[in-house]
Amino acid sequence: MINELLGIKYPIIQGGMANIATASLAAAVSNAGGLGLIAGGALTPDELKVQVEKCRSLTDKPFGVNVMLMNPHVPEIMKYLIENPVAVVTTGAGNPALYVEKLKENGTKVIPVVASVALAKMMQRCGADAVIAEGCEAGGHIGELTTMALVPQVVDAVNIPVIAAGGIADGRGFNAAIMLGAAGVQIGTAFLTADECPVHENYKTAVLKANDTSTTVTGRTLGSPVRALKNQMTRECLRLEKEGMSQEEIEKLTIGSLRRAVLEGDTQNGSVMMGQIAGICKKKGSIQSIIEYIINDAKEKREYLKNYDF
Q1: What is the pLDDT of residues 278-303, one digit of tens each?
Q2: pTM to 2 decimals?
Q3: CA 274 to CA 206: how far, in whole Å?
Q4: Which of 76, 93, 118, 139 reaches 20 to 30 Å from 207, CA-CA?
Q5: Residues near 135 by beta carbon (within 8 Å), at least 6 away in sequence
């Protein structure tokens, strides 16, 4: 069970959402029985240290740090996390092989995010304790495979626990992931409307108003697909991509866009990252209430299967 591996009550991991997953959000998730993550994102080592120390002051439960391996400060960040271990380090956008052994020596569980079977196998070979198989329904940076297709194939390919991510926001999604062979789930979009989530109120309203077709994916032609709310910025990005503009030209439009959305509440010119499941995220409330809703809904929905005589 992933609960035993990570020392948590519920098999729910909070997504490492850049500029969103702060110490306060991570602590709230951990205190509610899940595993909270601080987003390393583009933080400097000093900024990350502040967040980690704050999280330690807010919870005595396990929590982790998500490290984007494209961050130029990764060597210093990993040095800090090796010397000041947290319960879990999740990684994305690269191969953490250089750091896995040293992280694990100090008791940290290493769980990379993967978007393919090949990457999952590679992570198992380099010593990962588990993997997060993330489908393209998720918000933010994504791969190409859907959660429904990716998770069972990764489960069949590796011998370590698999955590499902992408398109999970209630008991139905939770149960579906478990039935696909996952040991737990990672959730991001469902936490965006939580009281403890630090995003601007405009961002939360955008999630609450979203429907099944409210998101789009930019960056596919550049090899870096990102799912976010359809708005003026994403429409302009797609237009520039269609015209064959260079990555440098498009980056001029997108640089700082996530911070504009998160901190300033600019839902037209900012990158309002959210998953396709936002259309069912209609609840506001505490992290505790959201997690309890998902778990209780999952238990209730399991009774549904008893109506079927297979």
Answers
A1: 999 998 899 999 999 999 999 988 87
A2: 0.91
A3: 9
A4: 93
A5: 142, 143, 145, 146, 147, 148, 149, 150, 151, 164, 165, 166, 167
